[in-house]
Inverse folding.
């Protein structure tokens, strides 16, 4: 049997015994029916499942042929953070500088425009491209803690004066770009709950913040 893998635009997590998918190509979350969900879990865990279910998963573009893809890097598991740089009490940005406010304003406006005019996949591709040019995961695997806290505090302080409503996705992407410009590599993390369904996103730098 041809080896198959999950479509590169899909990711999932297991919540309350079920799989919840994020499809960045179509900007949506979804779940599979019980039989298909069970078949997919079995295939991903053991490489085997009923042929009829596999065909349906292929037809729905959940599973695709596993080809060598030099442009596709598997995502690394992101550990649950132990602290929140956005909520630290020990670091307060001094007075927000004009340059920081202008930088934050420009970033937030740009990301909001992208989210309104482009799909999530393209927005994330642009973010990853910018981040890759300004920093690297290896170079910031052990960032200076004070640098992280000061940068987070600067963004939080400047964001208060940007006349655009806050939104977790908008602000997470904006913060990642803000940090990248300061040579700090952060990941965009999506989290969900199952019943009732709720989604949230945040910027995470390493396993701590």
């Amino acid at each position: 049997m041809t080896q198959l893998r999950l479509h590169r635009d899909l990711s999932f997590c297991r919540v309350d015994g079920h799989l919840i998918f994020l499809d960045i190509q179509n900007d949506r979350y979804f779940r599979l029916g019980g039989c298909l969900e069970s078949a997919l879990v079995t295939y991903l865990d053991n490489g085997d499942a009923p042929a009829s279910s596999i065909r349906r998963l292929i037809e729905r573009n959940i599973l695709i042929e596993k080809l060598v893809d030099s442009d596709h890097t598997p995502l690394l598991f992101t550990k649950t953070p132990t602290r929140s740089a956005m909520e630290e009490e020990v670091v307060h940005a001094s007075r927000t500088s004009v340059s920081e406010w202008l930088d934050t304003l420009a970033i937030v406006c740009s990301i909001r425009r992208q989210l309104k005019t482009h799909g999530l996949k393209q927005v994330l591709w642009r973010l990853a491209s910018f981040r890759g040019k300004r920093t690297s995961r290896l170079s910031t695997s052990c960032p200076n803690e004070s640098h992280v806290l000061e940068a987070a505090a600067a963004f939080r302080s400047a964001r208060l004066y940007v006349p655009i409503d806050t939104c977790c996705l908008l602000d997470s992407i904006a913060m990642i770009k803000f940090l990248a410009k300061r040579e700090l590599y952060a990941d965009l993390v999506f989290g969900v709950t199952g019943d009732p369904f709720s989604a949230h996103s945040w910027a995470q730098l390493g396993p701590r913040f």
